[in-house]
Amino acid sequence: MSAYREFSDLSAEPAVRGFIHEPPQSNGDGLVLTHGAGANCQSKLLIALADAFADAGYLVLRCDLPFRQSRPHGPPFPAMAARDREGLRRAVDVLRSRTSGRIFLGGHSYGGRQGSMLAAEQPQLVDGLLLLSYPLHPPRKPTELRTAHFAKLKTPALFVHGGRDPFGSHAEMKAALGLVPAQTMLMEIEGAGHELLGKKTGEELPSRIIQAFQQFFKQI
User: Fold this and answer.
1) Secondary structure percentages of the chain, helix, strand, coil, to 5
2) Which of 97, 165, 185, 207 has its CA 20 to 30 A from that of 159?
């Protein structure tokens, strides 16, 4: 079982704060993992995934976005989204200084959206994306798509999406991924909602995600 400890880097703004998961046997690769709009890096999904990825050999930085560092509750402000992306860029730089292999950027919902926007802005930043419950549109507002940057996304991405996610159906997600010029894979978690991890998905969900992740990025 991997061990993790609190981590902070205050050498520049925004600060990087969260937890480092050290792998028992490193494969040299690293993963930055962050949270959605209503959570923080202590969510059950992020902890379970970070532990599982570390056990699989990845160095994992599970971190809070700048908006969550500023206040413990409440959603992010749209005007501050660029700062959240800068926080992710700094987290990637921190992880890159600690491991020599490939660097991946992952996030749940809002965190994944900001990560994908950052990758579209800086195509060489990371080797791949893990986008958990990408918030394709607000619930019950299917025309308000959050895909403006998809045409510029050249970083390979694994999308993991619940079959009952109100932020986008499987069919809607599949259509949206057709806008992305990079290689993508859509992994549907049957019976899961936006949070992904729950009674219907079972404890094996992290291992299923890692298996799909490793298979997808092995062929790229």
Assistant:
1) 35, 20, 45
2) 97
Q: At 214, list the tokens.
A: 């490793």
**Directed axis angle between helix 81-96 and helix 110-121, to 10°?**
70
Indicate which CATH number applies to the domain containing 107.
3.40.50.1820
Q: What range does the domain containing 172 cover? A: 3-218
Amino acid at 10: L
Residues 11-64: pLDDT tens digits? Answer: 999 999 999 999 999 999 999 999 999 999 999 999 999 999 999 999 999 999
Model pLDDT for residues 138-182, shown as the tens digit of each residue? 999 999 999 999 999 999 999 999 999 999 999 999 999 999 999
Q: How many domains does the chain have?
A: 1
In angstroms, the first-to-last Cα distance of the chain is 28
CA-to-CA dists, residue 214 to 9, 64, 137, 189, 201, angstroms? 29, 25, 28, 17, 20
Distance CA 53, CA 46 (A): 10
